[in-house]
Amino acid sequence: MNVKRYLPILQWLPHYQRDTLTRDLLAAVIVTIMLIPQSLAYAMLAGLPAEVGLYASVLPLVAYAIFGTSRTLAVGPVAVVSLMTAAALGNIATPGSAEYVGAALVLALLSGLILTLMGLARLGFLANFLSHPVISGFITASGLIIAAGQLRHLLGVEASGHNLVELLIGLGREVGNIHLATFLIGLGTLVFLYSTRRWLKGALLNLGAPAMVADLLTKAAPIVAVAVTTLVTWGFQLDQQGVAVVGSIPAGLPPISLPGFEVGLWQELLMAALLISIVGFVESVSVGQTLAAKRRQRIDPNQELIGLGSANLAAAFSGGMPVTGGFSRSVVNFDAGAQTPAAGAFTAVGIGVAALLLTPLIAYLPVATLAATIIIAVLSLVDLPIIVRTWRYSHSDFAAMFATIAVTLGNGVESGILAGVGLSLALHLYRTSRPHSAVIGRVPGSEHFRNVERYSVETVPFLCILRVDESLYFANARYLEDTVMEVVTRQPDVKHVVLACQAVNVIDASALESLETINHRLQDAGVTLHLAEVKGPVMDRLQTTAFCKELTGFVFLSTYSAWVALTQPSNALYPEQAICPQATSLPLSFESNVPNSPGLTVKGVTAEPVHTRSL
Amino acid sequence: MNVKRYLPILQWLPHYQRDTLTRDLLAAVIVTIMLIPQSLAYAMLAGLPAEVGLYASVLPLVAYAIFGTSRTLAVGPVAVVSLMTAAALGNIATPGSAEYVGAALVLALLSGLILTLMGLARLGFLANFLSHPVISGFITASGLIIAAGQLRHLLGVEASGHNLVELLIGLGREVGNIHLATFLIGLGTLVFLYSTRRWLKGALLNLGAPAMVADLLTKAAPIVAVAVTTLVTWGFQLDQQGVAVVGSIPAGLPPISLPGFEVGLWQELLMAALLISIVGFVESVSVGQTLAAKRRQRIDPNQELIGLGSANLAAAFSGGMPVTGGFSRSVVNFDAGAQTPAAGAFTAVGIGVAALLLTPLIAYLPVATLAATIIIAVLSLVDLPIIVRTWRYSHSDFAAMFATIAVTLGNGVESGILAGVGLSLALHLYRTSRPHSAVIGRVPGSEHFRNVERYSVETVPFLCILRVDESLYFANARYLEDTVMEVVTRQPDVKHVVLACQAVNVIDASALESLETINHRLQDAGVTLHLAEVKGPVMDRLQTTAFCKELTGFVFLSTYSAWVALTQPSNALYPEQAICPQATSLPLSFESNVPNSPGLTVKGVTAEPVHTRSL
């Protein structure tokens, strides 16, 4: 059982059938055609030699096929993770240098270790730190940065910058130096890719082509662009005239590599690896879950961590770079009919063949073509309408999203995502730090108690019953102290305060200290503190504490029993001296002594309720 | 009104009376006697010249008297903040150097600005980030570090270290070099202070001394120790024999100082200033609130931020160091009968006189005496039993406390407090990320619905009603997706899922996206999603969203109306095609069409409930 959990391949491989094989193979062909240009492009985006992208698309796919739980997720280099890789490595070494390539291996290794350990420790919930607005703001901002960064390749100029503004200013300065041939190739590719993506499929369908063929041709557009621009560059020897090309790439399967074990470098890259891991995991899991749900399948987020972790470890030991599950390729894989992770393994074989045989042809591939591929791919990530929708729905969510976008664009990917996470946590704490609470009174003639501000209910001047509608924990512990003291100050004749705890699922140590403080402060002021409706598990814990012994009042089973006991000073069971309540027994004895007919009113027996407020 | 809020002095000064004056003056005398040695000692602890401690005890006290809301809080240098000051400045300059003293002014200035701005922006809730276990763990660890750090002054040896282990190893190496005279002075002071603190008051009371006198004499013990050891050192010229003394201090009132405006230094100190501000604020507010409650007074936390902020600004411009409200001195001030913040202003006058007249006498004060004063003061902060109590009460709170103590002792104060805050947030998110939820069924013959695992209730195989007992926000949004999909997978015949939202106070943008995702996934699987019991404010927001239009099912006013509508396929009002529910109107029309007698069972009319589960 456990072996199957950690090796999901055992769940599908034994039942693998010829029919499944056919479908998986077809999906693999389509994904391979799409992945070749993308892997080259994303390696370039990460500042790495083009072949690294190919290497990262072989063994990692096999590793995920063994350890991953999604049947259709397409793993490999993706845009956002490549951008984060470039940002992390940019501080360490010069892009393209040997140290830089080595650092990419270390980053993949760290990312792999982090993901695997998180999976084994079942820490998938950490991804919850990233709220949807932060994620989508981050991806939109990343898309803009990536697109802006690629413009220089498209224009054939030199320009760089650490943020969007610097990048755009740098580009502006270089407008006079645009390299015409490069620009024409880039612009042509851009227009071609945009048109095919937008219109080709519909046009082919209109012409009566089968849906399958139309789809395949549309997906093949990038590789057609690669082939055509490479041929043109080679034929007209454009590389001699200054068109930047990918250059010669070693032909061969991914090499066996060993990431460096330098403590200083590991420390420098740790934070980046953590962020890359979490962002990659969130992206991957959300597409994986969406696709799995369409076929009523399920994926296991913690095993997904192990699957993605093993893919990154495989990348680290085979000359690769950080990888994760890509959105667009996974959707293509799903639509093409992939049935099992074997499709991923077949894709790996396809890329392996490409690395062996096609690399000599890639030498003349213009960098501008890859830049155009990247721009088209990432602009689909930019989602501006969601900014408006988020603003309309919730201003605090908008604030977190806006902070993420602004800091990412202005200061870089790492600080952007940290700013978003920090702000969304702060806003959440702010919201739960002031939980709804209400002074409640008795609905006349019943055992029900309601908010005095909303209902016409009975109250007694020496008794205040406060209901708190939230678990008590450190973020609202001090607010509770404040609220109780305020209520007591407002009601100067009060002798008894009852906290009605029906909505309290947890009392943590901070809230316990606050309850102790409240108890002591009320005692100093001559007021007795009682609790009512404490839930079983909460009471179990409270009983072990000093608070329970020091509590000046009682723990009542219900608000009504508190009402009856405290409004009947003549009741023999209610002693003047406060004693430690044996919480489960004492209130029970109260309960058994109070009249429990719902219609009965205690008015006649007790102190006359003085106000009956209404809204 | 607003002027009075920001200038609390206007609330008490106009009514100031002779009787109050007498009490405030007496309290001020006692606190002054206590504060003179403490201010010198805490300046030393912060690595600053002794006179800085005196300067920080004059104008800041006056500023707090004007802007603070606590009537009895005694502001000035305190142990933990001084330790944090030393930790922050240690990276910037050599202790005691002119840069170091200048950096302390900048730290006070930043801390003053942060506190004041937080107060004006009403950000007092940020202190909620610090849970009680983190605070008490931090203070215990700080106390141990401070005490260990002072041992070298007590022994007259050189030893330093960045954490407790290094400190103790350093001290161990120096055991052979102990300076006998210094050690005797230090040990003597330690024993004297400990004995007087422990036994003097009781002994005096037994001898028939009035309580007032006994108390005053006990409080005066540190200043007696200072006087006696200074005299002994001066008389025997012990400073010539290697006993470290405070040395000559300029006599005079606090100088006017201008903190440097160097951007780099500000950036370096910003984080430290933020932590010092928050820790100081939390400490100060908790003692202030406790004392205020004893007299049924209240303090305003946001105005307290302004009060403490102005005190730190005053320190920055009068040659001081970061200050806050001290625990022990405030209690003494309260017990001595201080009635208004004027007591603090009188204390400032006392310290001013001391700075003018007494400084020449302090030159022969042995450093070991101050070290003994500090050790006695901080050891009362070390609270080991609370560690055990926290472990017993809550393992997750213990984890946060333990992380704080371990990292503070092992790696320093700043990383210690950050580790504690980070871990307590993570554990809180972990807890709320898996809220309680239950599949509910109908209590036979009623309109009530209960957990199918706990009660014997009716269910229908094509209908699943899920109740979630928590607000929906980013931390549990994905868990909700998981839970719904799991429930649907377990119940293969399900056609309708109803989310019962009576416990949902908020749906944030992340949870909204998750609801959209759930809606789409269920749609792909041929299942309709409905909501029930959505609260008014939540519904108001949902109605503006695309989700409400895309929802495949309806929003029902109550779970019961959902049950009736969905188990009655013959009901004409229930269309086959899902349409956008006009949330407030449609369910109402349902409501008006379903039988609402509580006793009625729909069994006869509708599909037969198939299981009636019981626990």
From TrEMBL, chains A, B:
Main localization of the protein described in the UniProt heading: membrane
GO CC list: membrane
Top-level taxonomic group: Bacteria
Location(s), subcellular: Membrane
Name used for this protein in its record: Solute carrier family 26 protein
CDD domains from the UniProt entry: STAS_SulP_like_sulfate_transporter (cd07042)
Domain named STAS: residues: 453-567
Membrane-spanning residues: 21-40, 46-67, 74-94, 100-121, 133-155, 175-195, 216-236, 269-293, 305-323, 343-363, 370-388, 400-427
Record flagged with keyword Transmembrane: yes
A biological-process GO annotation: transmembrane transport
Record's bilayer topology term: Multi-pass membrane protein
Keywords: Membrane, Transmembrane, Transmembrane helix
